[in-house]
Amino acid sequence: MAKSVSPNAISTLLSNPSPDSSSDLPDIVVQVLDLKSSGNRYSFSASDGKKKLKGIIPSNQYSEVLSGKIQNLGLIRILDYTLNVIPNKSEKYLMLIKCEPVSPALETEIKSEQSGITLKPKEDDVVKREGSTAGIVLKPKLDMVSKSAAQILHEQHANSAPARLAMTRRVRPLVSLNPYMGGWTIKVSVTSKGTMRTYKNARGEGCVFNVELTDEDGTQIQATMFNDAARKFYDKFAMGKVYYISKGSLKVANKNFKTVVNDYEMTLNENSEVEEVANEAAFVPETKFNFVPIDQLGPYVNKSELVDLVGVVKNVSSTMSIRRKSNNETVPKRDITIADETKKTVVVSLWGDLATNIGQELLDMADKSPVVAIKSLKVGDFQGISLSAISRSLVLVNPEVPEAQKLRCWYDSEGKDAAMAAISSGSISSSNSGSRSVYSDRVPLSYITSNLSLGAEKPAFFSIRGNISFIKADQAMWYRACKTCNKKVTEDMDAGYWCESCQKNDAECNFRYIMVAKVSDASGEAFVSTFNEEAEKIIGCPAEELDNLKSQVTYWIPLF
């Protein structure tokens, strides 16, 4: 197989910026140049040896970049695409929808004099057009079926509006959408529908609701509607039904509120078009989990980010009735206690139908210690750490996922006899929030050092567990402090110590620690500043005692 590109491939792409059907595309092979990660996506330049075109690789093919199948200087075959105009950019961008690797990295970049050699096309997929330019390979077009005008009119009237949408506009996969693309139509099913919520802010009152949409490739996106659009589409959207949607807008997803794995989120307004597709089964995506071990739930307490959990059911409570303060309604609640390989347990509260249906199922089989995988749980600090299901939570009993099977093997072999401790069992007193768990804010050092924005907008509080490996003694470990305000004082030329803050002179002063130590744990290390009370616990004596010791020796050699 010759390792080269299709002649004039870039011109072919530019001449057809949005093909109506991928089946009519010629064989387009380009070389990948300048492949690099740009934020949360991969960008590159497509080259045919004469011209270049900047492009974006779709997120559903990132794995092929990471695995090395798509490489810089390598070749790819473009199977589906669209060209977009990016604001503030003079050139168009190639947005790949589907592509396949053809060749790993070549030794050099292909130049124009080399581009006359073309790849041998797949024999079962393509045929050469007689009399065409050598090297241009086209897929055969489907046979055209002639129809009378009466037949066409009959079909148009028989088809619903969604079908007309599909006929006049190309249906695009969700993975190909971006904020700079317009005029798209998608075909999706509703896999989650939220409740209508009201809000009040500086601009007034309003209502909002959102849905999670899934296309037939399994890609998901969250769509949000406000006010008139919310009232227009709330009854229109139904769980499990399929729709054509157009005239919406996209923006970068807010990571604090997004509920699906997608870089973008969709907004529908009152002018958006939503048409139901009749007699079509919904696209049910494979559930993907991102499990968090029970002993690492601390950083998620009272945060907007939801967690997925897998564990063995140790206990199931009976159903309780809880009255909501917001609307005085009574809802059923059931608590289940689950454990995992960290030998910690946590209580998960199920509400509504989950409490009465799945909860009853778990109660009936509690003696068999079933494994549950739960998606989208809210982490709270009630009695330490607690988890609560929400409206879109999903509970799977004895799921066939690797993490659940591994947990089952561990529990059967050793876990059932292991001593378990509740993650909330180490409660300590806090003047600000009453009772809280020592685990609820414990994080590894890597969590702090890798999150450079921590504390940028507001103070961040957490606890760590590690070893002191070094105490920095090349700077003063203590200072002379005012007895009134603990601020630093200076020695007066006459006598005593002058406090600039209190504007007074005292005959005596205090000694207070201000010490820097290196702390290490299994995830990394970091320098930590410690002050008087904490430093006294580390050193084992007051700063004044250490200052007296220093004054009694000729040479001060730090032993830390």
UniProtKB/TrEMBL annotation:
Keywords on record: DNA damage, DNA recombination, DNA repair, DNA replication, DNA-binding, Metal-binding, Nucleus, Zinc, Zinc-finger
Residue span, Replication protein A OB domain: 301-398
Every Replication factor-A protein 1 N-terminal domain range: 5-102
Pfam families (UniProt xref): DUF223 (PF02721), Rep-A_N (PF04057), Rep_fac-A_C (PF08646), REPA_OB_2 (PF16900)
Presence of the UniProt keyword Metal-binding in the record: yes
One Gene Ontology biological process: DNA replication
GO molecular function: DNA binding; zinc ion binding
Places the protein is found: Nucleus
Protein task: Component of the replication protein A complex (RPA) required for DNA recombination, repair and replication. The activity of RPA is mediated by single-stranded DNA binding and protein interactions. Probably involved in repair of double-strand DNA breaks (DSBs) induced by genotoxic stresses.
Protein name: Replication protein A subunit
Organism per entry: Medicago truncatula (Barrel medic)
Underlying gene: 25493890
